[in-house]
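Can you please make up a protein's amino acid sequence together with its fold in C-alpha cell form to help me picture the idea?
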Amino acid sequence: MNRFNQLKELVLSLEADFVKFYDKDNQAAGTRVRKGMQDLKNLSQEIRIEVQDVKNKA
C-alpha cells in the first residue's frame, strides 16, 4: 500500500499547479504539470512491474 500512497501524494501535489495552469493561465505551472505527469507515468510503470513480479511469484 506504500506505493498507492506515493501515487496519491503525487497526484495531490499537482493539484495547485493544475489550477494555476488551467484557471490562471500560468505557463510555468504548465511546465510543472508536465513534469509531474512524467513522474506519475514513471511511478505507474514501476508499480506495474512490481505487481507483475509479485503475480508471477504466486
Notes: The chain has one domain: 2-57. Residues 2-57 form one domain.
